Target: tRNA-specific 2-thiouridylase MnmA
Amino acid sequence: MTLRVLAAMSGGVDSAVAAARAAEAGHDVTGVHLALSKNPQSYRTGARGCCTVEDSRDARRAADVIGIPFYVWDMAEEFDRDVVQDFVAEYAAGRTPNPCLRCNEKIKFAAVLDRAVALGFDAVCTGHHVRLLDGRLRRSVDSAKDQSYVLAVLTREQIAHAMFPLGDCTKDEVRAEAERRGLAVADKPDSHDICFIADGDTAGFLHGRLGAEPGPIKDESGEVLGTHNGAHAFTVGQRKGLNLGGSVDRRYVLSIEPVQNTVTVGPRASLEVDEIVCGRPVWSGCPPLTEPTACAVQLRAHGEVLPCRAWERDGELVVRLDRPAAGVAAGQAAVLYDGDIVLGSATIARTSRTAQEAAAG
Model:
């Protein structure tokens, strides 16, 4: 069956090979590059990110080699509102967001997909390393490059209009294929870090947007151990950058209270939680779990996969870990898996030691 496919081409090797595979499969493919900044020089340059002037040129050259039409879509306003401003607002609220996940949700598979469907396209094709089988997301065969975590926020309807041609191969195989196809991006380095923070200094970026606001760093008893220039510069589990002096034992950030502008620190043991409550559950791989169900959960990108029981309660996802985890930050995604199948995801809202304390009592 021939489909009209819109191939999102970032300028990297993955999206170029994905577009080439879609065209080779006989689909009617059109390439599109997303311009995400009104001033591209304010984002990354070189090979550090995915929002550069060079990327747009690389995407156009790849489309020419593949032999498909190519366009640039200006998505700067949507990207700033739904990704950059959301990123800043989440940190200001004491949470730790994942901007790549939000970009996939709001830009690549909401704004772009909506426009693509309106223009008569059947599917959006990307170079994400994830498999799509029987309408459900599955991990890539390349576990080191698997991107199912940052796509788990997608709804069933969005997945129904998605195409991921690279989930059945490794990154090395993608590069080798790009070279055989004569794509100049075959050896282009992977993007990394946050694409809209030009120098990689997240704390500096947030200070520039939110300003400095000195406040206390306290221990669990309320004793002031030091000061900070803005609670938004910290995340749960952080150890470096606390500047508490050599007289204070090693401490980790336990919580961030934005209203009081307070950062609470403590020993690593105090980071451990075994119950996680999450908002905005999305069930793409199964019906909502109404009873505690054994599965596995991943709590951050490239994080450990933990055995758990999970269920939906009063519109929230409850995750009960089989063993405690440390450094679980509000704002991150909790993604549920059954083996390599994505069951669903939700945004972490709060954590506790409730289950352990009850068992100990």
Notes: Confidence is low (pLDDT under 50) at residues 44-49, 356-361. The CA atoms of residues 42 and 198 lie 6 Å apart. DSSP finds nine helices and 17 strands in the chain.
